Amino acid sequence: MAEDVDVLIMGAGPAGLQAAVHAVRKKTGVVVIGKPENSALYRAHVENYLCVDGVMDGREMLETGVGQAIRFGAELVYEDILHVEAVEDGFLVRSETREFKALSVIIAIGTAKKKLNVPGEKELAGKGVSYCVDCDCNFYRKAKVAVVGNGSAAVDGALTLTNYASEVTLVTNALSVSESMQKRLAESSVVVKDGLWAKEILGEMGVTGLVLDDDSTVEVEGVFVELGAKGPMELATAIGVQLDMDTFSYIDTNKKMETNIPGVYAAGDIAGQPFQMAKAVGEGCTAGWFAANYVKKLKRNS
């Protein structure tokens, strides 16, 4: 059963954590879902942020931010988000082991979609190589497909594809998911190639096979690259959030960080350039502030 929450924040980077600090201090219930190590700041060193003298370690800054958010009263769920949808009176968000119904959602999960960087990937993108299971699964009914990845998005994608494809192979060299997801995978029809990785994608007009790093080949018509967590745009567009009209590469927001969907806000890299911590923190502050106000107004009028 879904747990009720006022403001749910997707992403535990600087934008998400700052949003949590501001939202929770306005006496709203706040849950942050995400892994700080997925933030670009985690592997960065900062020296161009106001009041930082010298160089600061991004990982340490995030750990401090996590501590602040928790101290003020936010709950941190260290999991990937697998699903989000609009429902009556709010939004349903599912992570690896929990499900929440939120009155307001702040999307602060960055933009990068990782690639395999193997031969054939670029050439066959859109011709059998996909980065979005939910978007493209319907095109692979009764086909043989492979999913490459080690995280929750890869396992969830492989499980989803069993409802469409005739055969699903998961290629993973360091699977890292919750016990519940491991159990679901073991009980499914997914063929798991454990301890192996993609070496090359074969095909000319379309995908015909996937070469693994032991030089074996899996005959497939589709390869889904799912590295890390669920893609930010995949999650955002699932609830009808509008992207920028020029490049369709970031979420369109106003000065309150509101999207076109009432109750949904966006902050940080996913809201466009510049990709800087200063911008992320400022937008997180704004999104957290207005999301909390939105929830308070909803409650007053209910």
If you average the pLDDT, what whole number results?
A: 93
> Any idea how many domains?
2
User: Would you report the number of β strands?
Assistant: 17
Distance N terminus to C terminus? Answer: 23 Å
Number of helices: 7
Can you tell me the CATH class of the largest domain? Alpha Beta
CATH superfamily of the largest domain: FAD/NAD(P)-binding domain
Order of helices and strands: EHEEEHEEEEEHEHEHEEEEEHEH
Sheet having the most strands? 7 strands, mixed
Helical residue percent band: 25-40%
CATH topology call of the largest domain: FAD/NAD(P)-binding domain
Shape: globular
What structural class do helix, strand and pairing data support?
Answer: alpha/beta
Radius of gyration: 20 Å
Into which percentage range does the β-strand content fall? Answer: 25-35%
Q: What is the compact description of this entry?
A:
Strands 1, 2, 5, 6, 7, 8 and 17 form a 7-stranded mixed sheet that branches. The chain has a 5-stranded parallel sheet with strand order 9-16-10-11-12, covered by helices on one side. Strands 13-14-15 form a 3-stranded antiparallel sheet, with no helix packed on it. The protein has helices spanning 14-24, 58-72, 133-136, 152-161, 179-186, 232-237, 277-301, and strands at 3-10, 30-33, 45-46, 56-57, 75-77, 81-87, 90-95, 99-107, 129-130, 144-148, 167-172, 191-194, 198-203, 207-212, 217-219, 222-225, 264-266.
